[in-house]
């Protein structure tokens, strides 16, 4: 009976690891506004922390505003941090860039290890060329020792051509391809992974806590693959 119970528990643990995203099995996380820090962060190597949103004014698209969304981050002496900016428009004003650079300077002055800046923008097909131009300008604005990361939609890899990949590789240090939408895993995520794996630039896979994930065997062998980032969520008791 005891052997049967142990075997059952071991099987459940394997299923949870293979099918359900448990943050305890990962070491890189997104920490978003409204999400309370979890104990798992204390062992993290990398954390992506939301700092604000950039969006066009609903009354006048020519007016761009920065909405600060600072997140409380516990002491993480061994973690490298990325400052994340959720962009709904690429028409940044000089003031937006100044705010971002000022935040970067304050975080570095605090003694934290700041790896770089991440732009979270849903680049549609028609915007890919504009996005490349935006990223190139931003790259030139950042300090030389500040790395640049971006997120990518799951179907993004099928819409970007070789020339665009080559240019992107000269601008950004990594792409994190998100396998979820909202707070749920995209049902057909596995269908996109072969195309994602063909990206010829450093990439990670973005997962949602509690979502689904079954890693294909070819992914770990990919020389461009850099691991996973998990989007943390509040537990039911924390959501209140």
TrEMBL record:
* Protein origin, superkingdom: Bacteria
Leader sequence segment: 1-18
Q: Which InterPro entries match?
A: DUF3142 (IPR021488), GH (IPR017853)
Instruction: Indicate the segments annotated as coiled coil, or none if absent.
Output: none
Q: Name one Pfam family in it.
A: DUF3142
Record keywords, A-Z = Signal
- Put simply, this protein is called DUF3142 domain-containing protein
């Amino acid at each position: 009976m005891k052997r049967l119970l142990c075997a059952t528990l071991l099987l459940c643990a394997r299923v949870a690891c293979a099918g359900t995203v448990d943050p305890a099995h990962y070491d890189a996380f997104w920490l978003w506004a409204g999400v309370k820090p979890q104990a798992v962060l204390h062992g993290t190597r990398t954390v992506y922390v939301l700092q604000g949103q950039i969006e066009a004014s609903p009354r006048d698209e020519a007016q761009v505003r920065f909405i600060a969304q600072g997140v409380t981050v516990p002491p993480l002496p061994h973690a490298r941090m990325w400052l994340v900016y959720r962009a709904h428009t690429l028409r940044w004003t000089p003031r937006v860039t100044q705010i971002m650079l000022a935040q970067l300077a304050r975080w570095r002055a605090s003694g934290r290890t700041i790896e770089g800046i991440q732009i979270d923008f849903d680049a549609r097909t028609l915007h890919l060329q504009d996005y490349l131009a935006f990223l190139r300008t931003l790259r030139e604005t950042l300090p030389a020792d500040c790395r640049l990361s971006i997120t990518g939609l799951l179907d993004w890899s099928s819409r970007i051509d070789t020339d665009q990949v080559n240019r992107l590789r000269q601008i950004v240090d990594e792409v994190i391809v998100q396998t979820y939408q909202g707070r749920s895993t995209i049902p057909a995520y596995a269908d996109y992974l072969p195309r994602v794996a063909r990206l010829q630039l450093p990439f990670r896979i973005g997962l949602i806590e509690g979502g689904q994930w079954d890693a294909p065997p070819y992914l770990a062998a990919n020389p461009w693959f850099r691991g996973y980032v998990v989007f943390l969520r509040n537990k039911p008791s924390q959501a209140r």
